[in-house]
Design brief:
single chain; mainly beta; five-stranded mixed beta sheet; five-stranded antiparallel beta sheet; 33 strands
Amino acid sequence: MMKSRPWALRAAGLAAAAGIALAAPALPTTAAPGGADVPQHVQSSQQAGQKPAQQNVPADLPGGKTVVGQTSPIHDPALIVADDGTWYVYSTGLVNRENGGTIQIWSSRDQGTTWGYTGTVWDKIPAWIDEHFAGGELPGNLWAPEITEHNGTYYLYYSASRFGGNNSLTALATNTTLDPNDPDYEWVDQGLVVSSPATGLDPANPGKTFNAIDAGIVEDTDGTPYMAIGSFWYGIFLVPIEWPSGKPVADWQSKTVNIADRFMPGNPVEAPYITRHGGYYYLFVSFDSCCRGGDSTYKVAVGRSTSVKGPYLDKEGRDMFGGGGSVVLDSHGAVTGPGGQSVFGDYLAFHYYDGSNQDLPYFPTLGLQKIDWVDGWPEFDQTVELPAVLKQPKATVSATSASVTATASGTPGPVAVWEISSDGGASWQRAGIQPVTKRTDEGTYRSTLELPAGDGIRQDLLVRAVFQNAHGKAATDTAAVPPVHGKGSAGNPAR
């Protein structure tokens, strides 16, 4: 049987066809949305190594959440929100050990809207993993992370395998902080958690085993932790683990439960994630085929149970151990093959293959949806409405500042990314300070770029907004911003 890992093997083929390379130099070294080449008067504290202040971001409505910034290549995103409000996503590493091949980290400081690349967990894959796979092909990257917190410690689970087989392992690293700038920041490798093929899972079927990738951690109402795991083969299993080690309990094989199996050729089910809501546990899985670009058939299915050990039944009462599972998120619009999901709070994080990206078509991209819980079931808005500009930008200038407002429609709600040109439109640069795009009472989306004078806007600027959602983009007309010199510099514009 085949499993759908790693994405980068197929993505590398797409990259080669497009004349690009999935290499470390293509990735930025910081998460700052702005850049050193942005004009000084639109620079922000996001540069120079400073953390940008949290903005007053409106609460999300249920449905698709538009994400902007650096959102690709992200595969198998594991979402967590730190105590300081920073959102983090951990994702599969780059193929062929490019950039070390280890788990990648992405972060957002505006409640999951604007994302930046933060780095990797380690510079290289731990040596003991190569020893585990000695005598054959070594893993080219680490896969399918899971991140969870318990009693002040962060537990990062990750997988290594060979494509096409179930000679796989899931391992663990721990940290006391997620902030790379914290002096205590260090991911400490805790070694092996579980490997496959595994034996002793079913006395009546000695050959039953699982593929030891795609871990997802859940606690029951008593605080007892479990690890859902599995990809193809005999499906999804629930392994009892224990704190503080984060590893399986003694004699875990005899206590492991097979909670999902499609009982069909290939058994295409993987990426389990269990979350509690109300009086139920919800098992999210990915059905069908990942990692085929525009031909991917991945989709998200779910079942629920009053016990963490199952049985997990879908909306029609079918057991997921036996072919059940209600599909709740499928391809729509430019979103192809959504899956590889995780859940944090009421947010589902997933990857998809972006059909709207003209530069990197059908590359793995971060997707977010705020879950709409309806009658005890998770629902996801799959409405497709391309962004459309409703109000073109026009500058309003005072003695000390300038502001430009534009409005658009679209579903998911579009986010405006403002761009600035100082050379008459020959080149455009992203503004260093990106304002919040707010939903109006009329259901449209408005964004206002503020340009404080500071040391003075000494030349005519052109600005424009690019409204974007998961399905496409719409650029506004350009607006001219006259010079604004501000107090103390108005009489000396050449200063």
